[in-house]
Amino acid sequence: MDTRRLGSEGPIVSAMGLGCMGMSGAYGPSDRAESIATLHAALEAGVTLLDTGDFYGMGHNELLIAEALKGVDRDAVQLSVKFGAQRDPAGAWLGFDGRPAAVKTALAYTLQRLGVDHVDIYRAGRLDPQVPVEETVGAIADCVKAGWVRHIGLSEVGSATLRRAAAVHPIVDLQIEYGLLTRGIEAAILPTCRELGIGITAYGVLSRGLIGGHWSKDAGFAAGDFRTHSPRFQGDNLDRNLTLVEALRVIAEQKGASVAQIAIAWVLGQGEDIVPLVGARRRDRLDEALGAFDVVLTAEDFAAIERAVPPGAAAGDRYPTAMMAHLDSERTTGAG
């Protein structure tokens, strides 16, 4: 497995991370045994970066990871954890809490559920508009000093917030959606990260499976699949987006690769400071994603991909309107 450093001062991690959210019900029911087998397969393949959130299944995801990591050398794995999202027992979103006391309380629960004495990267899942980012980052910095956190990250924030946060404590990475269908960060956020020495951990590289090459117009959603509310999976938007997938499939077939592998390889090729997070929750999907490392894209290939899926080609926002309103990154740069 290739490795990359997160930012100028961050840890060295596998060049691809495993996003674990889908193992806790976001895409409908998941198979616990298969999830754990997938985590083990990822570790065996050299994937060291595991990304989770304390609100993924309201603790379920952290407990799942803890079970999978039994007997695994703690120093061989980097745990990236998001916090702050507030949900009720039915799963409804209630907002975000970035107060210093909430930061430290959330971390205490996370350490207990994961069964570890520290997390490698800790970040608020979203910016709390009621709390200055300096206070939230300052609270995590206290946790760094105490040894409970190794590094500080951010999630879905814009350039101005990045600068304010970095003035308080070094930030190793920004976790944000980035892929062929979501390229808004290229205008301002990515240049700001590079100026400040902040890496990118890119989620949504396959746009939640939409550009993975396996989705069809007739595919249905399982109960609890949050994509039922995604604008990109609705009506004419879906038709338009699947047309883009088919254009990409032509290139994939020419390269002897799958559509997903081409899409992941494109992200890998955008810079050594970018680490894609692949949300595989089954071993076959993980194997397919890992195959992206075998895809060699030439300058001509990149140009062909850009013609097939040009910037701004995706139809529909990446989140429903209400969720878009929570994104500091979108308020700064516009829809991406």
Automatic annotation (TrEMBL):
<dbReference type="InterPro" id="IPR050791">
    <property type="entry name" value="Aldo-Keto_reductase"/>
</dbReference>
<dbReference type="InterPro" id="IPR036812">
    <property type="entry name" value="NAD(P)_OxRdtase_dom_sf"/>
</dbReference>
<dbReference type="GO" id="GO:0005737">
    <property type="term" value="C:cytoplasm"/>
</dbReference>
<dbReference type="GO" id="GO:0016491">
    <property type="term" value="F:oxidoreductase activity"/>
</dbReference>
<keyword id="KW-0560">Oxidoreductase</keyword>
<protein>
    <submittedName>
        <fullName>Aldo/keto reductase</fullName>
    </submittedName>
</protein>
<dbReference type="Pfam" id="PF00248">
    <property type="entry name" value="Aldo_ket_red"/>
</dbReference>
<dbReference type="InterPro" id="IPR023210">
    <property type="entry name" value="NADP_OxRdtase_dom"/>
</dbReference>
<feature type="domain" description="NADP-dependent oxidoreductase">
    <location>
        <begin position="16"/>
        <end position="308"/>
    </location>
</feature>
